[in-house]
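We close this part of the discussion by returning to an individual protein. Part of our work consisted of pairing the sequence of a single chain with a tokenised description of its backbone. What the numbers capture is local backbone geometry rather than side-chain detail. The amino acid sequence and the backbone structure tokens for this protein are reproduced below.
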Amino acid sequence: VRNEDAADALQQAIRIAPHSVDARALLADLLRMHGQSQEAADSYRQVLAERPWAGMAWWGLADLKTVQMAESDIRDLRQALRSPRASDDDRIAMGFALARALDDHGRYAESLQTLEQANAIARHRQRWNAVGYSQAVDALAAFFAPPPDGASDPRLGEEVIFIVGLPRSGSTLAEQILASHPLVEGSGELPDLPQVLAEESRRHGLPFPRWVPQMKRTDWQRLGKRYLERTRHWRRARPRFTDKLPSNWIYGDAIRAMLPGARIVGCLRDPLETCFSCYRQKLENNEYTRSFKDLASFWRDCDRHLHRLARTYPDKVYLHDYEALLEDPEPRIRALLEHCGLPFDPACLAFHENTRQVRSPSAMQVRQPLRRDTRHSTRYGALLDPLRLALGLPSWQDEASTRAPG
């Protein structure tokens, strides 16, 4: 939270030990969060001058998105990938960085092959159980059918707006819009909801959601108050705040039971764009992103669950469509604010002027005005047909034929 103090401390550490690679890397990350892209790039370059195989510095540089990588970076990355001093974590990060650099230079087949290699290293260490996860999602929903009698205070939790969905689905943009409102604090990805539920699991000696049938109104009220107690810091300056942990979609029913006054914004984006963006982004602890098959399965789980939540709780769950926002921004922003119980404020239309700290991979993008040319999959054409097949979408050629005139 005290990032200015952290930046000062890192600057002091660098003055004391100019060759401290770790301090420079952390400082670069902080500069990136504050939108200082050129300063961040310079810091990452200084790290690489000391440690050419530093994967996270390469990835930090590539993930700035506002700084295009050069052909010399591609050569240096290929050489660094062969370094015996590079760990698997370094190779994974450098692989994603190399793929981004190749993409910058229009070498799409090479980029996709490099992504496959980086994801394969990560997948070798831990595989995703797609079938088991899908079964768990459906089993969880069954514990809340019909919805239980939740907290007795219908206004409990009206301070919070949960923003959920897959990574890369426009959730950071939705938060940036809301956090530009004078009544809303953008708090980023908070760990508090899953931690409150984990506390309750320990109390019952049962994993969530097996203890749900034992809960009474007073129990749900207690959990809601516990969440609000843990997050009170975010209401010091403004009365409302966002909780943008994307994976909270899985807890939508629990949110409604323990915080009946809370709003939930489910972010939706074109499935091909969402899944491909997840595949090419170095996401920590998201093992479903390592293969097209697993990504497609996870996307279906999330999409099915979000639409069920919207049907079950239509007054509190709002599905926010990224493509519709790009097509007609003001009406969509007004609808988003209305759902959240917020009066319209023109600052929400100028969200890119908001200088708040953003910690997600979209930190640099949300500091720019909306662009309609954000589709990335079209550059890859038929190369992404395996992902289209996994998602049940038409092939590139079939899709192209439907777009052709006549």
